[in-house]
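User: I would dearly like some help making sense of a protein record. I have put the entry right below:
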Amino acid sequence: MRKILAVAFLLLAGCSTAPLRTAAINRQEKLYRRFPSEEDGGYKILQLFYATDRQAQEKDGELYFTSNMADGLTVGTLKTSIFPGLEIGRVVPKRLKKRGAVGVEEVVRLSDQDFVKSLSRAVEDSPHKSLLVFVYGYHDSFEMTAIKTSYFAYLLDVNTPLLLFDWPGDHFGALGVYKNAHAVATASGSYLGKLLAKIIREVRPKKLAIASSSLGCQVVCEAFDWMYGQEDLADSETEISHVVLAAPDVSKNEFNNKFKDEITALADKLTVYVSSNDRALLMARVADLEKKLGLQKFKLEQNDQFEEARDLLYLKSLAPDKITIIDVTPVNRVKGGHTYYIETPEFYDDFYMRLSGASSRFNRRLHLVNVKENVDYWVMYSEQE
């Protein structure tokens, strides 16, 4: 069946649109190689690690996860199949599954001890002894989040182990349901914090990066809040290489008053991607009556008028060497303006450079805007503009 689907997709997809990568990356740095995979019936089989605080159940010998929160974490590995001709485009996980483009093939639960051993081995075998942790946002089930992660891993295509932290964010409906999801995201933060602490203490990757999007950024911020209370983690030595917040569904006030200090104390670098046309964050702002970190309105023609960005620019001024702010509005053409972090080629390109440690100045798609008090701000453009 897979072979038939593979032929059909070759006819439909044509040439794959791979992320473009800037040639100006520091040549002294050993580049990441391809994400490891196996071949099966014309599909690539990817193996990812996962940790979730969903309730786990078994049916007919298969493991699956509910939308309810558990009292602890389930950890293990999962395998996904992905069609090699898949292009960067609108990601609707259910549609990708239905079309046979991406699917979850196997979910294995491991003991904590076996999980640490397996993850440690994968990190040790990677070129940079690295680990990339993904935390997605509101809406998707475990299966759909796994499909989304596999899609991103395949198109990013770097050789580093990838760990999905999945939380029960599949809540639907009116604004009250969003508030419930927000409460679950907040509660899930301590689970992620404990997991990251375990990885830092027992797996010991040389490079540990955390990428989050939407309401998943709230989970990450709460995780840093928990880790900041750990004496061995809150010392002068940073444990995490890079933190990425894309379209962050996080209160500006809460971030400025608490999370910014915790993240900059524990991480070497923080990159925040923002957009002025993010309708999902606009609705989230209405839901909880607070301004959102990832929703910005910038007037590039008048560099002295940045009222809406004042909090973020002030944050940048506190740690100019650690914090990078990137406005993706010019390249954000996705429906609703929210999921650019998985549907926009320019984002993959810039994310790759963050992971490799290259300076923003090497990315020709970024335009530097200088503002007052020596604070800079980057705006992302496509190559056609």
